[in-house]
Specification:
Alpha-Beta Plaits; 5-stranded antiparallel β-sheet; 4-stranded antiparallel β-sheet; Chitinase A, domain 3
């Protein structure tokens, strides 16, 4: 196999590859054995059509693509090694030529690792910035962990309050027509999270479990859906359940559950070191 390399702009290299005719003939024979399995010609059993008959009927080109697909992966891999390049993307293969008793050729353009010339960096003087971790930083980190390991529990209250997680069914209507994608069942919504259209969550406060009601929401002018931007949508809502977030206590049991430490003091000390 012969390989010619040309460096192009943009960290790209073009490889012009030539494959020996012996390998071409072998690939054509393998392609014939693959293709003939699905060929039916009157006078021959399926899969038993001789190659000369197959090529006479469909043309010799019928085997060329399959033969090239057999040759190309190994040829490209060997070409990369011969050219001593490090590709960082898949190649674009062009201009492939293949014919029996002749060498096959193709070109492959591929992006390679760029060569970087480093400037002077060994004499730089840097000062390490001292980081001070205070009690507030430590408590914030613990609070995040506490929140991550919280669970939602059903509350005995039957009225929605800010901070609750309301389980709701809702449907949105614009001019009396249902809005596609604006409905859900058993949807969990944190009241006060601001995750819904402004004005929606606030109107759920003080509503009771089992209550079915309508609320009106004016969508912002810059809303991503042009159909809803600046429009007033009516939502039919039912409160199915109310849940609250139960945070675990910051004690030794918590430390054992979320870390490899036995006590909360050891866990605090480890968090402080990592911070």
């Amino acid at each position: 196999m012969q390989v010619a390399k040309e460096e192009l702009e943009g960290n790209k290299v073009e490889l012009r590859v030539e494959i020996e005719k012996e390998k071409v003939n072998d690939a054509l024979e393998k392609a014939y054995r693959k293709v003939v399995k699905d060929i039916e010609i009157p006078g021959f059993r399926k899969g038993k059509v001789p190659r000369r008959v197959l090529e006479a009927r469909f043309g010799k080109e019928v085997l060329h693509q399959d033969a090239f697909d057999i040759l190309a992966p190994e040829a490209y891999s060997n070409a990369v090694k011969t050219a001593e390049i490090e590709p960082i993307a898949q190649p674009v293969v062009n201009d492939f030529y293949i014919s029996e008793d002749e060498a096959a050729t193709f070109t492959a353009v591929v992006e390679v690792k760029p060569e970087v010339e480093l400037g002077q960096y060994t004499d730089l003087n840097l000062e390490r910035e001292e980081v001070e971790i205070g009690d507030e930083d430590l408590e914030e980190a613990l609070k995040k962990l506490q929140d991550q390991h919280s669970q939602l529990e059903t509350t005995e209250r039957d009225t929605v309050e800010k901070g609750d997680f309301a389980i709701i069914d809702f449907e949105g209507f614009l001019d009396g027509e249902e809005v596609p994608g604006a409905s859900a069942e058993e949807y969990t919504l944190e009241i006060g999270s601001g995750s819904f259209v402004p004005g929606f969550e606030e109107q759920l406060i003080s509503r009771k479990i089992g209550e079915e009601f309508e609320i009106k929401v004016l969508f912002p002018e810059d809303y991503q859906s042009e159909e809803l931007a600046g429009q007033e949508v009516v939502f039919k809502v039912e409160i199915k359940e109310i849940k609250v977030k139960e945070e675990p206590e910051l004690n030794d049991d918590f430390a054992k559950d979320v870390s490899d430490f036995e006590t909360i003091d050891e866990f605090r000390e480890d968090i402080e070191k990592r911070l």
